[in-house]
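Revision sheet: structure tokens.
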Amino acid sequence: QARLVESGGGLVELGGSLTLSCVASGFRLEYYAVAWFRQAPGKEREFVAAISWSSGNTYYEESVKGRFTISRDYAKNTMFLQMNNLKPEDTAVYYCAVAFGPPATMTGDYESWGQGTQVTVSS
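Predicted:
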């Protein structure tokens, strides 16, 4: 059964760092584009970052450029989101997702989703 499981969320102070992980089971990530989205309370789910598994090309939402880094590990069938210089506005539930196609920024382009991991940044 195909499954994505996120981990690594938590409570961090302003300017702190966290690394999120997303482990895939039941399928290989190398055939997909993979991405991170986030959803804050009362807001729609929004694109954060994506990576083409085959080319390694990365894409970022403007507000996280220079602070977040998306990466993947073939051997572990896992993708990561390194988040530095965190701000209160980064507080949200973070989801990983996969798309059988090129990286995209719309939620409707992604076929499978993890359950989410909470990131809270205190000021």
